[in-house]
Every structure is written in structure tokens, then in C-alpha cells.
Amino acid sequence: MKVVVVGTGYVGLVTGVCLAEKNHNVICLDINENKINMMREGKSPIYEPNLEELMTENYKAGKLDYSTNYKKAYKDAEVIIIAVGTPEKADGSANLEYVYEVSKQIAENLERDCIIAIKSTVPIGTNDNIEEYIKANLRNPVNIEVVSNPEFLSQGTAVHDTLEAYRIIIGTNSNKAKNVMSELYKDFNSPIVFMTRKSSEMVKYASNDFLAIKISYINDIANLCDVVGANIDDVIKGMGYDKRIGNEYLKPGCGYGGSCFPKDTKSLHYLATQGGYNLKSVEATIAINKKQKIVLIEKARKEFKTFNNINVAILGLAFKPDTDDLREAPSIDNIEILLEEGANIKVYDPKAMNKLKENFSYKVEYAKMPQEALKNADVCFIFTEWEEIKNVKPSEYKELMKRPIVYDGRNIYHPEEMKSCEVKYYSIGRGE
Ligand SMILES: NC(=O)c1ccc[n+]([C@@H]2O[C@H](COP(=O)([O-])OP(=O)(O)OC[C@H]3O[C@@H](n4cnc5c(N)ncnc54)[C@H](O)[C@@H]3O)[C@@H](O)[C@H]2O)c1
Questions:
Q1: Residues near ligand 1 with C-beta < 6 Å?
Q2: Are residues 142 and 15 in the same domain?
Q3: Per the confidence metrics, is the pTM higher than 0.90?
């Protein structure tokens, strides 16, 4: 099928590449010319395992192309997938400006009947509104239908999550749209679940917010473990035997980040409030996570009244391993506090340091290895559990740091092991 995917970010590019892998004829469209030029040279603008390899294979095979020419691309597409960003506005609601801009461009340029699938995460009711908007602005006598097709991939495993999706949700009441979307996904070995557009939009928010609630719940319990002297590792182990609970997404840490959970919790809460409903579970989650992102600094206040002139090593910047994404990453909140207090910061991250340089004008030093960041440091904060960071031996903290004090936001080490290497070690929920 002739498919155009609009927006070549984490969702759009991965979707386009995976659809080409399943033998569709795909154009990945973006307004950012630099990105398009990079991709034409075989380079991915984002880091995702296996992405670049599949980009190269499918581009060479002629199944995948990249373009900024939306007029040409939209003209004769059978399916257009909208995957542009829906960032958070100041009031917590979702910014739909990019989705509407694309919708306008589609309406003005379509020359054949087309199914338009919205993959961007959008508030409940948006698909209905977009369909109405496009129909009202069509320049040519063509039929369109808008289908909700939310995305559930996780950054760091995006290619795998797309090719082996747990489920594909299609929100539409139209038989024609059901048939086209079934054809699009026929070679994906995933169950396809049909429902109304509004229910489909809600599946996305309810799923993300549930995961955010799960993370905040275990963080809350971990903090309580610190207060009462229990050990969160044992608690999770004990809980996980119960199949109703399971042990996925029950890992304490210094808060969730990324481009999805923070904005999708706020957006659903905003939507509920607009409808006169108080979504208390999500409200509590947002508040817990805000505090959790600076839990390490709060712990460190016992050792450091201020960070003025303190040499700080920061290991890990990305909001999770295997991505270079810094959006809403806990490292950022902490770097800002530390810099404001006058700390001397040296950071290490295997993939996200360029993004920090490009997007923030922080006065920090960059280390090529974790060990380089640790040299002569008074304190170390760990924000991401990259393999490269996990591989730092406990004894190296003692050998390299001026004062071996480590605050670990991802519970990488065993407290006993660190203690035996004479490292003062604090993690989450393990009673230190
Ligand atoms: N990142 C994730 O893990 C993830 C997972 C599931 C769902 N989502 C949702 O998917 C959507 C996209 O997220 P993302 O992280 O891929 O975003 P992103 O910011 O990485 O990428 C968006 C892309 O859209 C492009 N764009 C903007 N306006 C355009 C236009 N008029 N024409 C063509 N391209 C345009 C931008 O240049 C950018 O490259 C969001 O709604 C997000 O909530 C994201």
C-alpha cells in the first residue's frame, strides 16, 4: 500500500520503517530538512536499537523514502499516518497545533480517497474533530475517513515493540476503514482490536497513566521502606509472586520522565477536570513523580547543605537506557538545582550528551567514560541504568572519587558491596 507517515520522530520514523519492512511503499515526511537529509544518507536522527540497519535495508530496497515535499506525498496516498508531536501546554493540556497543521495540508492536497490514521496521542474526541475539520477543508472531491490508531511503543525497544506489538488498536465504526487498516497490518503478528474512536483514544491514555501510576506507587512504597526500615527489593520480590500483581514496572527509581508519561498524565487530568471529574489517582501520581525526581538531592542534603563548589559526577542523562531522549529526564531537574547552587558538574552518558549540548546551555563538562566523570568528584549521582554505567566497579568509586559518596537513582548496586568497598552509598527504598 502507498503509505505516508507524517513526523519522523520516535514514533513516526519507527512506524514508517517497520511498515516498509512489511513491504508497504512508505514515504516518511517531515518539515525538518536536516533530518530528511540525514536519513537519506542512512543516518537516524534518533537513537533506537536496530533502527539504522532497517532504515538502510528498506531505503536500498526502494520501499522507503524520506521527503519534505508534503504536496507531492499527500496527493495520492492510500493511508496517511499522523505521528507529529502533541506536547504539553502550560495548563497541562495537549498542544494540537501540529496535528491541525498537518490536517490542513492533507485537506488541501489530497487527490484520491484516503484513510487518515492518527497515531499521535490526542485527547478523547480529537479524531472526531479532525475528521470534521479535514472534510470541511478538502479542496478536491475525495472521501476521507479518520481512524484512531494509538501507538504503544517504548523508547529503547521501539523497533521490537512495533514489529511485535502486544496489540494494535483501531478506533473506527467504518467497515471500509477497518478493511484498509486490517490490510495495512496484515503481516504483523499482533491481535487487532477494533472499537470506537473515543474508546481507542482512551485506551492510550488509560494505558500510559496506569503505567505511570504503577511506577509512582512503587516509588511511594520505596520511600516508605526507607522510613520504616524495610527493603524494597525484597518487598517487590514478595509481591511479584502474585500473578494479579506481576513484577513488571515495579522498579523503584528517581521518577519517570520522557515525552509520554509526564504529558499524558497531565493531559488526561486536564481533560477530566474540564469535564467536571476529579481524576484523583492520576493527580496523586503527578505530585508523587514531581517530588521523586529530586529525591536524591533531598537525601544528599544530609551530607551537603549546599553544592557550592562541590565537584559532582553525573552518570546518565537520558530518561531511560537505550535512548538519547532527554525530555522530562530527572537528570535535567537535578542539574538545574546543582548549577544554581554553584556545583562543578561533569556528566557522562553514552548517547545523550549531544542532545544536552544542543538543547541546553548548561555550563557542565563532558566525560568520555564514566570513570572520567568520577575522577576527583565529591559526590556522584546516577540517573540512568546504562550498561556502561552498571559496569563501573564499586571499587572504582573509592579509587577515583575525592570523597566516595554515591546517590543511585536506579538501584544499580548492592548496598553491601558498596559498603565493603568503603563507598557511602544511598539508593531508593533500601533503608539507607
Ligand atoms: N515517543 C514515544 O515513546 C511515544 C510513544 C507512543 C506515542 N507517542 C506519541 O506520538 C506522537 C509523536 O511523538 P514523538 O516522540 O515521535 O515526537 P517527536 O517530537 O520525536 O517527533 C515529531 C516529529 O514531527 C515533525 N513535524 C512537526 N510538524 C510537522 C508537519 N507539519 N509535517 C511533517 N512533520 C512535522 C517534527 O519535525 C518531528 O520530527 C506524540 O503524540 C506522542 O505522545 C510517543
A1: 6-12, 29-32, 35, 83-86, 98, 101-102, 120-121, 151, 153, 155, 259-260
A2: yes
A3: yes
